[in-house]
Amino acid sequence: MSLATPTTLPPAEAAEGRRHFGQFSLRGRVLLSQMPLTLSVALIVVAVAVFHPHIMTDHPYFLGGVGGVALLTVLAGVVPWGRLPPVVYWVIPLLDFVAIAPIWASARHGLDGMVMLSAFPVFWLAWSGIYPVIGVILGFVGSAAVTWWPYLPGTPAFAESLIDYDLHRPVVVPFIMLALAVAASVLTRSMDRQRRDLGAALDSSKTQNRLLQAVVETSDVGILVVDGDGHDVLMNQAQRRTHFIGLPPGRDDGAEHELLLFEADGVTPIPAEDRPVTQALQGHDYRGRIIAIGTDGAQQHLSVSASSMYDEEDNFDGTVVVFQNVTDLMDAIQTRDRFVAEVSHEFRTPLTSIIGYLDVALEEDLDPIVRKFLNTSQRNAERLLGLVTSLLDSAANSSKVTVQEVNLARLVRNSAESVEVQTKKAGLSLQADLPDRMDAKADPVKMGQVVDNLLSNAIKYTPSGGSITVSLRQLGGVGGVDGGGEWAELVVRDTGFGMTAAERGKLFTNFYRTEHVRKAAIPGTGLGLAITQGFVRAHGGEILVSSEKDVGSTFTVRIPLCGPDA
Ligand code: ADP
């Protein structure tokens, strides 16, 4: 850490006293940088006093140098360096060279390694990080001056060295110092660069963290993050509100396992092992699970989704659980269903009466024009009744079937025969590939509606000249939907408009109609397939569709022959 770059001390670390060099004030750092030299000189003074006390008396410069180091140490600790331009504190290492010179010159004969003292200011200048090149050059010049000073012409050492022929002795020392200074400077600069990169990475991660925090807190969706040990790591404001709703009456705090959670019906309590967070902590990921939280008037419906998190070794590391309040949506769906059921019911009674009276009227001997008008009125009244019946069916509980022994082959044949005229009128060909008999336990009315609906769609959505095939076959135990029991498979295939994959995905949604059909104004409500799917599922079966735009569609219905309960 360079001296020139103070950083602030995080409060926690300061409290624990774990400060590192860079976290001291500039004055502290200057003093600390001076201390190795000060302590080394103190050691030398002790060694000289014990082993060569004559140095102190014979060489008055020695004590002068020691005094200089002491004075510089005091200055290092006293001067408010932080208030001065950073480079000013270089005065201390530079003056250190001046103080070291007499110490080294006086004690070099008594003690080895005196010249090493100049390594301290050399290092200091090199790692200070202010002007790296100038620092290295000054270190070299300073250490060279110290080393060669005793050998300068006119000094006693010069005379001595002439006698001993050892003028060459200090030649390499400044270069070794230079090498050390370069190494220290390179190391410091690379550490500074690393620190800057780390600082930038830290800043960017802090910014991202703040952004994430803002997004999470602003979100209306409750977010809960739990670590692998089940401890809450994050709970946003929306989730804190939801948590509060779920607390038992009279409580204003409590753990997750105390919350009042119910299944979507709002009354069946969710068993401990099935609770959303418990499930998520077992590593189960799920989407859009509807639950109710709280009781009475305060109860809310939530759509819950969970996603597991994994560490680098792919071990489970916690989970993110998201709670979306769907109370308004649930209320709206319930209100819509109630409205549709009530309105359809209210429409049906007068319509049935209108159709009945038109029937009676048509039995009379009528003027041809009047008969034509009445016929048109009856057709339209019947269409209206069909529409209302569809609406009522969609609102009614389609999951209830009344099963009885049914010959499915006959049921499908009847439906096919009853649309024959209609098919011909539409310019289509209809082929039926049916066995003579196929007995099943099914609801004849609802299965009849399934077949009628698929056939009527095939006719409506196939342009003139196309063909429709209806087939029924029995699937053995292995070929069944779940690999067990025997199944009936009804296939209705047409060469009609077909649909895209995206349209296929929405086909069984209430009121959904493809764009092409809507634009072509082909009559329909978009309820038929949703109702059909409800009926098939109520039989314990499934309905599949494969379709290609402008090529045709194939609807496949499979139901178990032994009825839904088997
Ligand atoms: P409806 O026929 O009253 O519109 P359905 O629920 O029966 O309602 O069908 C929903 C939509 O699915 C239709 O409007 C049509 O766009 C599409 N569809 C259904 N059957 C076919 C088919 N055989 N070929 C092409 N499109 C179809």
UniProtKB/TrEMBL annotation:
User: What InterPro entries does its record include?
Assistant: HATPase_C_sf (IPR036890), HATPase_dom (IPR003594), His_kinase_dom (IPR005467), HisK_dim/P_dom (IPR003661), HisK_dim/P_sf (IPR036097), PAS-assoc_C (IPR000700), PAS-like_dom_sf (IPR035965), Sig_transdc_His_kin-like_C (IPR004358)
Q: Does the keyword Flavoprotein apply?
A: no
Which EC numbers does the record give? 2.7.13.3
* A Pfam family the protein falls into: HisKA
Molecular function (GO) terms for this protein are: kinase activity
Instruction: Using the record's annotation, list all stretches that form the PAC domain.
Output: 284-338
- Tell me what reaction this enzyme catalyses: ATP + protein L-histidine = ADP + protein N-phospho-L-histidine
Question: According to its UniProt record, where is this protein mainly located?
Answer: membrane
Membrane-spanning intervals of the chain: 30-50, 62-81, 87-107, 119-151, 171-188
The top EC class, named as a word, is transferase
Chain ranges of the Histidine kinase domain: 342-563
SMART domains on file? HATPase_c, HisKA
- Subcellular localization: Cell membrane
Keywords of the record, alphabetical order, are: Kinase, Membrane, Phosphoprotein, Transferase, Transmembrane, Transmembrane helix, Two-component regulatory system
Descriptive protein name = histidine kinase
What organism does the UniProt record list as the source?
Citricoccus parietis
For this protein's source organism, the top of the classification is:
Bacteria, Bacillati, Actinomycetota, Actinomycetes, Micrococcales
